[in-house]
Amino acid sequence: MASVQERLHKGYAQSMELKGKPLADEKSKYQRIRIFDTVANGRVMTLDDIVQITTRDESAYAEMLTHLPMLEHGKVERVMIVGGGDLSIADEALKHKGVKEVVLVDIDGRVVELCKELFPEINAKAFKDKRLRIEIADAFEYLGRKESKNRFDLIVADRPDPVGPGKALFGETFYDRIKGALKPGGFATFQTGVPFYQPWEITEALEELARFFPRSGLYLSVVPTYIGGFMALSWAGKGAGARLGTPKGIKRAAAAFKKAKLKTDYYNPETHAACFALPEWIKRLVP
Q1: 245: Cβ contacts below 8 Å, ≥ 6 apart
Q2: Is the pTM of this model over 0.70?
Q3: Which of these is catalytic: 86, 108, 153, 158?
Q4: Is 133 in the same domain as 260?
Q5: CA 182 distance to own-chain centroid
Q6: Range of the domain at 9
Q7: CA 153, CA 150: separation in Å to the nearest integer?
Q8: How confident is the model over 133-149, as pLDDT tens digits?
Q9: Do 25 and 113 have their domain in common?
């Protein structure tokens, strides 16, 4: 049986056994895109041989980056997604009836095209939703536009690891632009690596976020194919009152979840409350 290997961390790799021939294998202007079915993890997309999404565990990532801040906020109307060309995060955001607009900004239009064709299980509803706007553009540049100023209640940075075209989506200038595009009281969420193998990402990200936001922090998810156990998700709030993970916010989110009757595979109020509890070794990475 053919297999695909991902070697993201020094001294460690994972291998996935393929089911049939690859569905897509091509180089876009920016990266190599591969989509294939696997024996254990469903349909998978890799970019430059790094796993981006699998149909088996995408919920643990997409739901936690969206529902958690949206339910605590309570009145999210406009969402921006940085990257996210597979549309899994857009699909989750659009489940909220109060949302008026979701703007997805991905630099690689070919990723969006292939995911529309090959991942209908997770994005067919999103593509049909009139509230969705897809911009094929550099998200870093888009955040700096005049029309982005104070526009969004939530910005989800579904950024890749800091290699290739994703490098611009890390660092102080990026966080400053995120702050400028958020409405007062708004939130931004970010993937911040797998702390078991990428401990520095937490420390660096939280140090940089603290320079621009009065409130920021960390919570956890577990995405099995992002090898290393816990996945670190960081957040920042624009304004002193914009804070995630407070007892009041968790209680408000639980009530909102029940009222909204959201269908989820990973997220629930109990997981929401628990994800802010950090193991001691991860606490030590928080500056």
Answers
A1: 72, 217, 219, 276
A2: yes
A3: 158
A4: yes
A5: 17
A6: 3-54
A7: 8
A8: 999 999 999 999 999 99
A9: no
